[in-house]
Amino acid sequence: MGAVSSVNVAVVSNAEWTGRVGRSGIDKRPVPGPVRFTESGVSGDAVCDTDNHGRWFQAAYAFDAEELDFWSGELGKDLVAGNAGENLTLTGGASTDAVIGERWAVGDAVLRVTGPRQPCRVFAGFWDVQRLVKRFTEHGRTGTYFAVERSGEVRAGDEVRVLSRPEHGVTVGEVFALQFHDRPDLAGHVSGGLADLPEPWREKVAAKTAV
User: Which intervals hold domain MOSC (predicted)?
Assistant: First the structure.
Protein backbone atom coordinates (compact mmCIF):
# COMPACT_ATOMS: atom_id res chain seq x y z
CA MET A 1 0.00 0.00 0.00
CA GLY A 2 2.98 2.33 -0.31
CA ALA A 3 4.32 4.73 2.27
CA VAL A 4 3.74 8.07 3.97
CA SER A 5 5.57 10.86 2.18
CA SER A 6 4.26 13.60 4.48
CA VAL A 7 2.20 14.15 7.63
CA ASN A 8 0.29 17.44 7.52
CA VAL A 9 -1.64 19.59 10.00
CA ALA A 10 -3.73 22.72 9.55
CA VAL A 11 -2.77 26.33 9.37
CA VAL A 12 -6.15 27.90 10.13
CA SER A 13 -7.30 30.38 7.50
CA ASN A 14 -9.86 33.16 7.65
CA ALA A 15 -10.34 34.16 4.04
CA GLU A 16 -13.14 34.92 1.62
CA TRP A 17 -13.14 31.35 0.28
CA THR A 18 -13.96 29.91 3.72
CA GLY A 19 -17.58 30.89 3.02
CA ARG A 20 -20.17 30.55 5.76
CA VAL A 21 -17.72 28.64 7.95
CA GLY A 22 -15.62 31.79 8.41
CA ARG A 23 -12.53 29.82 9.37
CA SER A 24 -11.07 26.70 7.78
CA GLY A 25 -8.39 24.11 8.49
CA ILE A 26 -8.18 22.86 4.90
CA ASP A 27 -4.75 24.46 4.44
CA LYS A 28 -2.49 21.75 5.83
CA ARG A 29 1.30 21.87 5.91
CA PRO A 30 3.96 19.16 6.41
CA VAL A 31 5.41 18.87 9.89
CA PRO A 32 8.74 17.29 10.87
CA GLY A 33 9.00 14.39 13.23
CA PRO A 34 6.27 12.10 14.55
CA VAL A 35 2.62 13.18 14.84
CA ARG A 36 0.20 11.39 17.12
CA PHE A 37 -3.01 10.01 15.60
CA THR A 38 -5.85 9.40 18.07
CA GLU A 39 -9.53 8.48 18.02
CA SER A 40 -10.40 12.17 18.23
CA GLY A 41 -8.08 13.28 15.44
CA VAL A 42 -4.53 14.26 14.54
CA SER A 43 -2.48 16.11 17.15
CA GLY A 44 -1.79 19.69 16.11
CA ASP A 45 -4.52 19.69 13.48
CA ALA A 46 -7.60 21.94 13.58
CA VAL A 47 -11.22 21.27 12.59
CA CYS A 48 -13.26 24.45 12.17
CA ASP A 49 -16.37 23.18 10.38
CA THR A 50 -17.50 20.62 12.95
CA ASP A 51 -20.85 20.15 11.17
CA ASN A 52 -19.11 18.36 8.31
CA HIS A 53 -15.71 17.32 9.63
CA GLY A 54 -13.94 15.92 12.66
CA ARG A 55 -16.24 13.07 13.66
CA TRP A 56 -14.71 9.80 14.83
CA PHE A 57 -14.91 8.32 11.34
CA GLN A 58 -13.14 11.39 9.93
CA ALA A 59 -10.27 11.31 12.42
CA ALA A 60 -7.72 11.44 9.58
CA TYR A 61 -7.73 11.89 5.82
CA ALA A 62 -5.28 10.56 3.22
CA PHE A 63 -4.65 11.61 -0.38
CA ASP A 64 -2.15 10.35 -2.93
CA ALA A 65 0.91 12.30 -4.05
CA GLU A 66 0.25 10.93 -7.53
CA GLU A 67 -3.16 12.63 -7.51
CA LEU A 68 -1.59 15.93 -6.48
CA ASP A 69 0.71 15.53 -9.49
CA PHE A 70 -2.30 14.79 -11.72
CA TRP A 71 -4.13 17.93 -10.61
CA SER A 72 -0.98 20.01 -10.88
CA GLY A 73 -0.85 19.09 -14.55
CA GLU A 74 -4.58 19.56 -15.09
CA LEU A 75 -4.73 22.97 -13.46
CA GLY A 76 -1.27 24.35 -14.14
CA LYS A 77 -0.65 24.68 -10.41
CA ASP A 78 2.20 23.47 -8.24
CA LEU A 79 0.24 21.43 -5.71
CA VAL A 80 2.27 20.02 -2.84
CA ALA A 81 1.73 17.81 0.19
CA GLY A 82 -1.23 18.95 2.29
CA ASN A 83 -2.86 20.97 -0.48
CA ALA A 84 -5.84 18.61 -0.72
CA GLY A 85 -6.46 19.10 3.01
CA GLU A 86 -4.97 15.68 3.76
CA ASN A 87 -3.27 14.63 6.98
CA LEU A 88 -1.41 11.85 5.17
CA THR A 89 0.16 12.28 1.76
CA LEU A 90 0.80 8.77 0.42
CA THR A 91 3.04 7.49 -2.35
CA GLY A 92 3.07 4.16 -4.15
CA GLY A 93 -0.51 3.26 -3.30
CA ALA A 94 -3.99 4.16 -4.45
CA SER A 95 -6.03 5.17 -1.42
CA THR A 96 -9.30 5.44 -3.34
CA ASP A 97 -8.97 1.71 -4.14
CA ALA A 98 -8.88 0.80 -0.44
CA VAL A 99 -11.74 -1.40 0.76
CA ILE A 100 -14.28 0.03 3.20
CA GLY A 101 -13.41 -1.40 6.62
CA GLU A 102 -9.84 -2.22 5.63
CA ARG A 103 -7.38 -1.84 8.52
CA TRP A 104 -3.95 -0.28 8.05
CA ALA A 105 -0.87 -0.23 10.25
CA VAL A 106 0.86 3.12 9.77
CA GLY A 107 3.70 3.87 12.15
CA ASP A 108 2.46 2.91 15.61
CA ALA A 109 -1.18 3.61 14.71
CA VAL A 110 -3.91 1.36 13.35
CA LEU A 111 -6.32 3.12 11.00
CA ARG A 112 -9.59 1.82 9.54
CA VAL A 113 -10.89 2.98 6.15
CA THR A 114 -14.34 4.55 6.56
CA GLY A 115 -15.23 6.21 3.26
CA PRO A 116 -14.61 8.81 0.55
CA ARG A 117 -14.15 12.51 0.81
CA GLN A 118 -16.88 14.67 -0.74
CA PRO A 119 -15.44 17.85 -2.31
CA CYS A 120 -17.00 21.15 -1.24
CA ARG A 121 -16.94 24.83 -2.18
CA VAL A 122 -14.32 25.55 0.52
CA PHE A 123 -12.00 23.12 -1.26
CA ALA A 124 -12.72 24.80 -4.60
CA GLY A 125 -12.15 28.21 -3.07
CA PHE A 126 -8.88 27.14 -1.49
CA TRP A 127 -7.58 25.99 -4.88
CA ASP A 128 -9.22 29.02 -6.54
CA VAL A 129 -10.61 26.90 -9.38
CA GLN A 130 -14.10 27.37 -10.76
CA ARG A 131 -16.09 24.15 -11.23
CA LEU A 132 -13.49 22.22 -9.22
CA VAL A 133 -16.15 20.36 -7.27
CA LYS A 134 -17.65 19.05 -10.53
CA ARG A 135 -14.26 18.19 -12.02
CA PHE A 136 -13.01 16.50 -8.86
CA THR A 137 -16.23 14.51 -8.60
CA GLU A 138 -16.04 13.42 -12.23
CA HIS A 139 -12.43 12.28 -11.76
CA GLY A 140 -13.52 10.26 -8.73
CA ARG A 141 -10.13 9.78 -7.02
CA THR A 142 -11.16 11.17 -3.64
CA GLY A 143 -8.67 9.81 -1.15
CA THR A 144 -10.03 8.25 2.02
CA TYR A 145 -11.12 9.02 5.56
CA PHE A 146 -10.14 6.91 8.55
CA ALA A 147 -11.19 6.07 12.04
CA VAL A 148 -8.26 5.51 14.42
CA GLU A 149 -8.52 2.08 16.06
CA ARG A 150 -5.24 2.33 17.93
CA SER A 151 -3.54 5.61 18.75
CA GLY A 152 0.07 5.99 17.72
CA GLU A 153 2.74 8.14 16.16
CA VAL A 154 3.09 8.48 12.40
CA ARG A 155 5.89 10.15 10.47
CA ALA A 156 7.09 10.64 6.91
CA GLY A 157 8.72 7.48 5.61
CA ASP A 158 6.46 5.07 7.50
CA GLU A 159 5.32 2.06 5.50
CA VAL A 160 1.59 1.42 5.07
CA ARG A 161 0.70 -2.20 5.79
CA VAL A 162 -2.74 -3.76 5.31
CA LEU A 163 -3.67 -5.75 8.42
CA SER A 164 -7.06 -7.01 7.23
CA ARG A 165 -9.41 -6.52 4.30
CA PRO A 166 -13.16 -7.32 4.30
CA GLU A 167 -14.22 -9.98 1.84
CA HIS A 168 -16.99 -7.82 0.34
CA GLY A 169 -14.33 -5.89 -1.60
CA VAL A 170 -16.31 -2.64 -1.82
CA THR A 171 -13.85 0.18 -2.41
CA VAL A 172 -13.90 3.83 -1.43
CA GLY A 173 -14.10 4.74 -5.11
CA GLU A 174 -17.09 2.48 -5.71
CA VAL A 175 -19.03 4.01 -2.82
CA PHE A 176 -18.30 7.46 -4.25
CA ALA A 177 -19.27 6.40 -7.77
CA LEU A 178 -22.61 5.02 -6.60
CA GLN A 179 -23.35 8.22 -4.70
CA PHE A 180 -22.27 10.81 -7.24
CA HIS A 181 -21.81 9.17 -10.66
CA ASP A 182 -25.31 7.73 -11.15
CA ARG A 183 -24.04 4.13 -11.18
CA PRO A 184 -27.02 1.91 -10.30
CA ASP A 185 -25.03 -1.02 -11.68
CA LEU A 186 -22.91 -0.80 -8.51
CA ALA A 187 -25.88 -0.94 -6.13
CA GLY A 188 -25.87 -4.68 -5.51
CA HIS A 189 -22.11 -4.82 -5.02
CA VAL A 190 -21.91 -1.79 -2.72
CA SER A 191 -24.79 -3.09 -0.59
CA GLY A 192 -22.44 -5.85 0.56
CA GLY A 193 -20.21 -3.31 2.28
CA LEU A 194 -22.89 -1.27 4.08
CA ALA A 195 -22.10 -2.76 7.50
CA ASP A 196 -18.57 -1.32 7.36
CA LEU A 197 -19.73 2.24 6.63
CA PRO A 198 -20.27 4.64 9.55
CA GLU A 199 -23.96 5.00 10.36
CA PRO A 200 -24.45 8.57 9.04
CA TRP A 201 -22.97 7.58 5.67
CA ARG A 202 -24.53 4.12 5.67
CA GLU A 203 -28.06 5.54 5.53
CA LYS A 204 -27.28 7.73 2.54
CA VAL A 205 -25.51 4.97 0.62
CA ALA A 206 -28.22 2.43 1.50
CA ALA A 207 -30.77 4.71 -0.15
CA LYS A 208 -28.72 4.53 -3.34
CA THR A 209 -28.55 0.73 -3.23
CA ALA A 210 -32.35 0.49 -3.15
CA VAL A 211 -32.73 1.25 -6.86
Answer: 29-163
